[in-house]
Design brief:
Helix content is 26%, strand content 25%. The protein is of the alpha/beta class. Strand 17 (332-337), helix 10 and strand 18 (358-362) form a beta-alpha-beta unit. Bound molecules: zinc ion (2 copies).
Amino acid sequence: MKAVRWFGRRDIRIDDLPEPKVGKGEVKVKITWSGICGTDVHEFTDGPIFIPVDVPHKLTGQKAPIIIGHEFGGYVVEVGEDVKSVQVGDLVAVMPLMSCGKCIFCQENRPNLCPDAAYRGLMGDGGMTEFIVVPEKDVQKFPEGVAPELVAFGEPFAVAVHALNRVGGVKGRSVSVVGAGPIGLIVAKVAEHLGAKPVIIFESDIGRRQCAKRLGFSHVFDPHNKSDREMFRALTNGLGTDVTVDAGGSAIIFEPAFPVAGLSSLQISFDITRPGGQVVLVAIHFPQIKLNMATFLSSEKSLFASWLYLPEEFEQGVKVIVELADWVPKLITRKIFIDSIVEEGLLELELYRAKHIKILVTPHHEFL
Ligand SMILES: [Zn+2]
Ligand SMILES: [Zn+2]
């Protein structure tokens, strides 16, 4: 079977590998679609970041070359002995998070904090291939009749659900999202779906602002623009939002994704949050950033870090995807066959990042 493997920086190859065999309690999935994440692009252009190269990962025993892709799913084509929750023909999203199951964090149901946690597509083989075998507990079933593209959104929706759960939910609260990349747009949509009001997006790139408007968001502001900032104040009674999610971040070696007069997206997030409000950090800031701690102190805002998700949030995310089944495909800006992953996928995103939301990859011609 074809598999996209990361060998090193700027060295991604399409290899021919044997199909994995299903064991007891496992499920074999024929992958329909896999989303390309910004992390995949960074591993390609600047890696290794998360991919182990010298020492095999403790949990997976794997190191490069590794099959990339952590936003994926497909149809169940074979089930092992004792598998009960899914059957052949079911459409499922695969949860990429794996953990040891034994440590204190796993026992407290916080596997995202497991010191040995691994991610399919980074520390273990992922979804940019024709088939994958995973434990039954790591697949989440979709109802019959939904589009097979939706499976590629399980992971980013779980990330969004976790971010909003971190602050105790957003129903009836005002929410700002800083940064209108794929995660920012998904967080904003999930917040709206869960009853947040109003939901406001801040984005400095005009292309991305237009894109957010096309996706149906009505409050999309440019942080550089004075009248936008005034509209924001009017919308939030001059106070700022109850909750702000920083989905901007800064890419390694690149310019910050959200540069506003030298302010990080996290500082902007603090500045637009009401006193006593909550800020959620979803974006990764690789370089150290400066924050104004004096105003942070005197305004008693809280900062919540949000890392990955919990298994039940992956399930919750799939439920939200199904409820938003008409909206989610609007996030797809290109669909490609696995053979052109580098030219039409990774290089395209490296060069024209702001032009795209999600590029999906399929390893089977029948889905294209
Ligand atoms: Zn990702
Ligand atoms: Zn653990």
